[in-house]
């Protein structure tokens, strides 16, 4: 049986080639986006394996949604990794070139929004200092920095990432950021302006979609140890949209004897989380729409919900932006005559 990510040959080749470039000469930023469970972490782990095998440190930081997390928290984790990887001599050399920024972050006094009040360095100086530390160490060995789940970052961490992205293009520092685009692009997401600006600073953005039916079948086989019937694969693919986490959870449930259409608790939780991000009027409308069926017409929904078509359209736009629904052609409408 194969191991490693299924159905990701192209994005994997792209990311590996950016890693190889960084080991050699050029770094910068690569973004990996997609909904929860789509395989962002899996893809990055696979691709950075090559950097590790070649002795390049992989410095990882995960963003954490908490009022107690110190400012610049993902960068604090990266700097801890950098200090370890550099060793005392090279760390001292990096600090000499960079100034106090890294240590201010490491001792918890440098982050705007940190617990100790105002930052002792302004944003630009701090960002320049941290970037210089990375670049200085990278002169000895290339670095791969992975920042996971940027949709949960503090704003200053994103500003630092954008700064570092724009200043490492000609250095052996590759920055890889992952985030859930479906959440970050919601109109009221607080990080939306900062996150939507990031792709402009990135050389490459890789957006992951669902697996194809053949890979869905292969993943069910991998989880379950038995090849599923084609009908089961088609049903699981239709219900999960090819999301690997959803497929795994569904296959486990199916393996335990539940029907292929049963909803696994992990899937229910993930969908609830996505619905919770929407205003209640939108979720209520989606609940009504789900009763109509997998496909529904907005006009019918407006009649059922006692809302104007305009209101329904506005609420459905929100659900569309969260990629919970898609718009298709109305099968009851005649196609336009040829030549129009
Ligand atoms: N391409 C893939 N092939 C097989 N399994 C995958 C693939 N991508 C993700 N998975 C599995 O799906 C689950 C969720 O993947 P993960 O990388 O954590 O998603 P994300 O980081 O986007 O939330 C993991 O258990 C992982 O092993
Ligand atoms: Mg992840």
UniProtKB/TrEMBL annotation:
Keyword terms: ATP-binding, Nucleotide-binding
GO annotation, cellular component aspect: cytoplasm
Segments traversing the membrane: none
Record bears the keyword ATP-binding: yes
Molecular function terms, GO-annotated: adenylate cyclase activity; ATP binding
SUPFAM superfamilies: P-loop containing nucleoside triphosphate hydrolases
Pfam families: AAA_16 (PF13191)
Species this chain originates from: Streptomyces calidiresistens
Domain of life: Bacteria
Protein name (record): AAA family ATPase
Orc1-like AAA ATPase domain span: 6-176
């Amino acid at each position: 049986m194969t191991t490693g990510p299924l159905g990701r040959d192209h994005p994997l080749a792209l990311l590996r080639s950016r890693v190889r470039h960084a080991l050699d000469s050029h770094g910068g930023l690569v973004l990996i986006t997609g909904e929860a469970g789509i395989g962002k972490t899996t893809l990055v782990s696979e691709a950075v394996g090559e950097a590790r095998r070649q002795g390049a440190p992989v410095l990882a930081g995960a963003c954490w949604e908490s009022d107690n997390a110190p400012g610049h928290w993902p960068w604090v984790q990266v700097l801890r990794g950098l200090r370890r990887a550099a060793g005392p001599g090279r760390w001292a050399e990096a600090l000499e070139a960079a100034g106090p920024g890294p240590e201010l972050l490491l001792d918890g006094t440098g982050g705007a929004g940190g617990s100790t009040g105002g930052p002792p360095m302004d944003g630009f100086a701090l960002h320049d200092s941290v970037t210089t530390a990375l670049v200085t160490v990278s002169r000895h060995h290339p670095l791969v920095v992975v920042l996971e789940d940027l949709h949960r970052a503090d704003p200053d961490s994103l500003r630092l990432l954008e700064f570092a992205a724009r200043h490492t293009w000609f250095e052996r520092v590759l920055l890889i950021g992952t985030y859930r685009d479906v959440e970050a692009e919601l109109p009221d997401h607080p990080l939306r302006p900062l996150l939507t600006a990031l792709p402009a600073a990135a050389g490459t953005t890789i957006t992951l979609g669902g697996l194809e039916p053949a890979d869905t079948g292969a993943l069910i086989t991998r989880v379950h140890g038995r090849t599923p019937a084609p009908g089961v694969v088609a049903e699981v693919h239709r219900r999960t949209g090819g999301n690997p986490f959803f497929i795994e959870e569904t296959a486990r449930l199916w393996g335990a004897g539940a029907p292929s259409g049963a909803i696994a608790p992990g899937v229910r939780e993930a969908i609830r989380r996505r619905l919770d991000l929407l205003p209640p009027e939108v979720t209520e409308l989606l609940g009504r729409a789900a009763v109509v069926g997998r496909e529904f017409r907005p006009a019918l929904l407006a009649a059922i919900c006692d809302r104007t078509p305009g209101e329904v359209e506005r609420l459905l736009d929100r659900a569309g932006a969260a990629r919970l629904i898609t718009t298709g052609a109305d099968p009851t409408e005649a196609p336009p005559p040829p030549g129009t």
